[in-house]
Amino acid sequence: MALFAYKAMNVDGGIVRGQLDAANLADLEMRLKRMELDFINGSALDKALRERGLFRRGKAPKAELINFCFHMEQLLSAGVPLLDGLTDLRDSIHHPRLREAIASMIESIEGGRTFSQAMAEHPKIFGKVFCSLIRAGEDTGNLPRVLKSLNDSLKWEDELASQSKKLFMYPAFVGVIVLGVTCFLMIYLVPQMAGFIKSMGQDMPIQTRMLLVVSALIKQYWMLFLAAPLLVGIGIKAGIENNPAFRRRFDAFKLGLPLLGPILRKIILARFASVFAMMYAAGIAVIDAVRTTEDVAGNAVIQGGLKRAGQLIAEGRSITAAFQHIGLFPPLVIRMLRVGENTGALDTALLNVAYFYNRDVKESIEKMQAMIEPAMTLVLGVILGWVMLSVLGPIYDVITRLKF
Predict the structure, then answer these.
(1) Does residue 283 share a domain with residue 197?
(2) What is the dihedral of CA 224, 229, 235, 237, to 10 degrees?
């Protein structure tokens, strides 16, 4: 099959554009008709560009995947056939990328592929973990239960992401205010006062001289100061994408940050424990589960540790001994894993680990938010105090001398 870019009309007369897999233009027209779209025109995209994903849109929002898992779990639990459930879901979903993916999955399943194989054709929407769990659910006949577990896991990840955003939203907001106030003082107010201070004809204190130098630099190179964070961000992103050694060093730097580093480590390990518990409960072999969940970490340092743990398990070590050796988990978590492994309830132990970290992350974020507010207020106060002392100090000295 080839990937086609198409232009079509929906039932309301609106123009819809998108991409869809099809054998040819006639097949594309038939697929669009099943999606209640009237074909207008279409063209095949270049194979090389398709493989690089330049014409593929991004991932589907997590809310849409939660909706997908919930509806499919409900339909399959009620005894609705898989194809009928996917067809009903395709007709009710409004997100174009996910709708196109479901339409393509229906065609693939009708062509003889399994549910998981059809999902694997859309890696940007359904990742390796997602497809592996669906495959395990198909093999064991527990597909509705796996979908429910995926639904719960996606909700948990969404909640965790929301908590993480809260941690950075307030500092970012206050930081913008502090930056704006500083730029106003340095670019407008201080230069206005500089001439008056220099005309006093007296020696200026060191803090005033420093303020005037900083103000002159910011006024002259303000574009460079504003562009610097953007340039640093682009450089870091390029280094992460093109240099594995740089990515590892940067990921290690993030984990070593005071206050933020421990929270980031707990978030990653909580996500790993939750996904690993799902895969273990679904009947996936431990080694395969560890290897599949390496990508869930999203951090090269922890990913390397999990890879080492998988190697140790493959060499014959127990799960507890492997995780203890890599040193990612604290002794309390290792003890929980040991009990779970000895009792045969490792999935329950892993879920307890995820709950342990999730609760710890929530408490840490709340503490950080409580600390950030006075810290940012203090920073703003120090800047304003420095400016006022540097500007008003010389003026006060002149006034004092005039009295005598």
Answers:
(1) yes
(2) -150
Q: Which domain holds residue 67?
A: 62-154
pLDDT in tens, 350-370: 888 888 888 888 888 778 777
Cα separation, 282 vs 144, whole angstroms: 11
For residue 19, the one-letter residue type is Q
Residue 161 included in any domain:
no
What band does 185 get if pLDDT is binned at 50, 70 and 90? confident
Segment 124-137 shows an average pLDDT of: 85
Same domain, 186 and 329: yes
Shared-domain flag, residues 89 and 201: no
Quote the number of domains for the chain: 3
* Within a domain: 250: yes
More confident residue, 216 or 21: 216
Whole-number mean pLDDT of the chain? 80
- Chosen domain end from 154, 185, 200: 154
Quick one: 13 and 91 in the same domain?
A: no
pLDDT-based confidence at residue 98 (cuts at 50, 70, 90):
confident
Tell me which residue has tokens 């890879």.
Answer: 307
Place 54 in a pLDDT band, splitting at 50, 70 and 90: very low
Confidence of residue 402 (pLDDT cuts 50, 70, 90): low
- C-beta of residue 66 within 8 angstroms of C-beta of residue 76: no
Q: What does pTM read for this prediction?
A: 0.69
Single out the residue in 98, 130, 154 at which a domain terminates: 154
Q: Inform me whether the pLDDT recorded for 383 exceeds 50.
A: yes
